[in-house]
């Protein structure tokens, strides 16, 4: 990259070439004026060495202050030569003012001062030599007053030209600095914009403003570039996270489907168990009623057995009475037989009757004994049966109590089964809703993955666009805003999950990557300077 002095040197070299052409033109004009007063030797003696020395300086020391100051003096020498060849004609003096104006192309006040000093020395010395008659011509007639008038105009013009030269020099510096800045910005052949301004203090106000603007742009672009890098990394992490989340969501959806199927089967089993529990409860209630009824029957049976036992005891007593009556009848029959025997023949019939009565009494006694034995055995059996019935009644009471307890337990089991059935139904409904939400989440994750992929593509495109700007990494790290470095925290998409349908995610149309600006061919430095 060319520096400020290099750009100014290019201007000085171009001005050297231009003024050298003017010098050669003045030399040719001097050759033409030689025929007026036969001054060819003066043209060759004064003009030719002047233009040759100027040509050598332009060739070997072009762009230096010595060269341009010598060219300024050489122009005045050629003007003095023309005045001498024109025999001091007043019109020939106009060339001095014209050539002084030509020197503005250098934009250097020192060249104008040197030229004015040379022509002033020429006028004073040649006017004096003309008065002494040395054959040189400055004016048509020597006149010191006229020389002073000419000097006044030369000084006036030189002062104005020096001021203009200073202003033009400032403009040249400004143009050079702006050209350097623009060349620095757009100097890359690959179409990039280089924001790394050289740490060279600017002299012109415009260059300072441009440099400040570029520095601010450098800081902003540094922040943008770091932000783009963060966005690229974040979008890549989001894309990877979405892929992982998508896989986990699909796995969760599959697990929820299996869980939902299992819960449906469990719901069916629980419902069947609840129905069985209700039926068992009804059977238990019926069994409890039957057991209570059986307990009542057993109570009645116990009472009946007690009554039978009492009746059997009464029968035993009655049999005892009958046995006593039979015994007494037998005694009476014996007494009657004894009395009949005593009576003899008259009591034989009575004896037969008494014998029959005795037989009947004996048979009655025997029968009553047998009945007594049977009745006693029956009483014993009735007593044993009463005990068994009493025990059966106690057992039946325990059975009734147990059946009531079983009925209560079955009632509780039935109630718990109904509650469990309701809970299982709620769980099944919740799992179904979770399955629906998971499916919605899966759709949202797919849309988020597509959005993250689009964001990643856009971040890549933005990164390519930002790569057009060349930045200083050291200063970019300091210029970047801390807020840019801070990653944005993801906000939970709770509103999307609450909706029954997946919320569509609008994905911005992918914009084609912005191609780097085509590198414009750099214009020649001479063309750049012709614009100023």
Walkthrough of the structure:
Mean pLDDT is 77; it is low at 487-532. This protein starts with a helix and ends with a helix. It is built from twelve helices and two strands. By secondary structure, it is mainly α. A two-stranded parallel ribbon has the order 1-2. Helix 1 (4-37) packs parallel to helix 3 (65-85), helix 3 runs parallel beside helix 5 and helix 7 runs antiparallel to helix 8 (348-466). It folds into two domains: 4-185, no CATH class; 235-464, Helix Hairpins, CATH 1.10.287. The protein is rod-shaped and about 250 Å long.
CATH level 3 topology of the largest domain: Helix Hairpins
Question: What is the straight-line distance between the termini?
Answer: 20 Å
Instruction: Characterize the overall form.
Output: rod-shaped
Number of strands: 2
Most strands sheet: 2 strands, parallel
Rg, Å, rounded: 72 Å
- Count of domains: 2
Superfamily (CATH H level) name of the largest domain: Methyl-accepting chemotaxis protein
What number is the mean pLDDT?
A: 77
Class by SSE composition = mainly alpha
Low-confidence stretches: 487-532
Helix share of residues?
over 70%
CATH C-level class of the largest domain is Mainly Alpha
H/E element string?
HHHHHHEHHEHHHH
What multimeric state do the chains show? single chain
Share of β-strand residues: under 5%
Provide the CATH architecture of the largest domain: Orthogonal Bundle
Query: What is the tally of helical segments?
Result: 12
Strand order of the largest sheet: 1-2
């Amino acid at each position: 990259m060319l520096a400020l002095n290099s750009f100014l040197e290019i201007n000085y070299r171009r001005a050297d070439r231009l003024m050298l052409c003017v010098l050669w033109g003045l030399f040719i004009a001097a050759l033409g004026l030689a025929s007026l007063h036969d001054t060819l030797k003066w043209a060759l003696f004064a003009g030719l060495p002047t233009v040759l020395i100027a040509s050598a300086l332009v060739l070997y020391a072009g762009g230096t202050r010595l060269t341009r100051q010598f060219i300024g003096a050489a122009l005045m020498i050629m003007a003095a030569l023309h005045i001498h060849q024109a025999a001091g004609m007043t019109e020939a003096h106009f060339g001095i003012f014209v050539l002084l104006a030509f020197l503005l192309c250098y934009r250097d006040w020192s060249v104008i001062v040197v030229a004015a000093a040379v022509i002033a020395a020429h006028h004073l010395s040649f006017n004096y030599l003309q008065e002494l008659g040395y054959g040189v011509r400055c004016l048509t007639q020597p006149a010191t007053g006229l020389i002073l008038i000419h000097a006044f105009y030369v000084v006036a013009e030189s002062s104005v030209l020096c001021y203009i030269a200073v202003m033009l020099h400032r403009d040249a510096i400004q143009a050079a600095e702006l050209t350097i800045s623009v060349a620095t910005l757009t100097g890359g052949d690959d179409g990039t914009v280089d924001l790394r301004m050289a740490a060279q203090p600017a002299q012109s106000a415009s260059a300072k403003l441009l440099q400040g603007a570029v520095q601010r742009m450098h800081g902003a672009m540094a922040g943008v570039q770091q932000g783009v890098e963060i966005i690229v990394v974040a979008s890549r992490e989001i894309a990877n996270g979405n892929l992982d989340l998508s896989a986990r969501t699909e796995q969760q959806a599959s697990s929820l489907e299996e869980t939902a199927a299992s819960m449906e089967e469990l719901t069916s089993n629980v419902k069947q168990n609840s129905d069985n529990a209700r039926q068992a409860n009804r059977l238990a209630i019926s069994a409890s009623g039957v057991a209570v009824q059986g307990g009542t029957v057993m109570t009645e049976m116990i009472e009946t057995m007690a009554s039978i036992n009492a009746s059997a005891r009464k029968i035993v007593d009655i049999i005892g009475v009958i046995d006593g009556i039979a015994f007494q009848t037998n005694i009476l029959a014996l007494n009657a037989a004894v009395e009949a025997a005593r009576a003899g023949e008259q009591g034989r019939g009575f004896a037969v009757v008494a014998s029959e009565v005795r037989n009947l009494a004996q048979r009655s006694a025997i029968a009553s004994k047998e009945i007594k034995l049977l009745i006693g055995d029956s009483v014993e059996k009735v007593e044993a049966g009463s005990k068994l019935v009493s025990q059966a009644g106690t057992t039946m009471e325990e059975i009734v109590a147990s059946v009531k307890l079983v009925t209560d337990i079955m009632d509780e089991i039935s109630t718990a089964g109904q509650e469990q059935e309701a809970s299982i139904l709620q769980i099944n409904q919740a799992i179904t809703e979770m399955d629906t939400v998971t499916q919605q989440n899966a759709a949202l994750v797919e849309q988020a993955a597509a959005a993250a992929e689009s964001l990643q593509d856009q971040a890549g495109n933005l990164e390519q666009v930002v790569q057009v700007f060349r930045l200083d990494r050291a200063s970019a790290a300091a210029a970047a805003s801390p807020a840019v470095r801070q990653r944005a925290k993801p906000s939970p998409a709770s509103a999307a999950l609450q909706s029954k349908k997946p919320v569509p995610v609008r994905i911005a149309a992918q914009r084609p990557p912005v191609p780097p600006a085509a590198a414009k061919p750099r214009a020649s430095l001479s063309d750049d300077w012709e614009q100023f």
